[in-house]
Amino acid sequence: MSPIRRRIIAAAVLTALCAAAVPPLAQAQTFPTKRFTFYVASTAGGSLDIMARLFADQLRKKTDQAILVENRPGGNDTLAMGAMVAAPADGHSMVISGNHIAHLFVKSVPYELPAITPVTILAQTPFTIVASKSSNLKNISEFVAHAKANPGKLTQGAVAGLHALEMYAAQFALGFQANVIPYKGFAPLETAVMSGEVDSSIFGNLAKVKSGQITAIVTAGDKRNPDIPDVPTFKELGISYEPRASYSVWARSDTPPDLLERVNREAQELVQSPDWTERITKGFGIPPVGSTREVARNYMTREFQSYKAVAERAGIKPQ
To answer: Are residues 178 and 44 in the same domain?
Structure first.
């Protein structure tokens, strides 16, 4: 073999070895390569919207790319998800939403459930059962005893979708019946509980509890919430029910895996940042999570099946 041929072969081998040494996420290092869009499944100004804008700021600083945050509320999150599914599967369009259970409520969802996948759970809020001051229900024992003694008379306010299912899940777990009254949003629902228009609801935001305008009955979580230290958890009462809201990043399932991993890493870094602590953890009282993709996927799968069982028991069918 000639010296020139040997040098060519050696160069080819070296090139191959170098290519093999490049980590599989190398492509993701240049992500995003064009304008990125976060579709937010809520109106502007709320905790979900602020999370999306914090994430957008982080990506913008690191990539020098334009990041658009577009609010697409409504349709049990199908408007936001539908916009993402209609976009190219190049990882440049994602959704900030919660647990996705639209298929339990909506017949004409413009995509199949396997078409979307959770990238990470950014944060989770334990839900708390609350009561109006006028109901005079001060603890879980009084609450359940009153509901059982007056079947169907206790009223619980709920926003459509997952929140309504939580009302039914609470009733099934605690063994009582109540009338679930629908509201178009959490602001009017909060007002309804404060005024006594409804007896009870389930809240994640405890601002009105801490101000003394609403009574907390029982809460989710592994231990008592330091903001409401006198309120017991379901767990310590031996109740197998853990209501909580998740705030998550979703993508098309056919998005390149390396890009999903890059977004997951950025999300985990984000929830540990001072900005997140100040604006989300302290500002809204929402604990950070920053899960792996696998944890997020397994959790969402379990939750969907759990909510499906509640919907079937409550007689809720897609409309």
So the answer is: no
Quick one: 81 and 94 in the same domain?
Answer: yes
Q: Are residues 61 and 145 in the same domain?
A: no
CATH of the domain at 256: 3.40.190.150
The position carrying tokens 């064009």 is 34
Give the model confidence (pLDDT) of 215-242 as tens digits: 999 999 888 988 899 999 999 999 888 8
What's the distance, CA 181 to chain centroid?
23
Nearest to 302 by CA among 234, 244, 221, 263: 244
Phi-psi region of 77 (alpha: psi -120 to 50; beta: other; left: phi over 0): left
Q: Which of 214, 210, 188 is nearest to 131 (CA)?
A: 214
195-215: per-residue pLDDT in tens? Answer: 999 999 999 888 889 889 999
- The residue to which tokens 């929830």 are assigned: 271
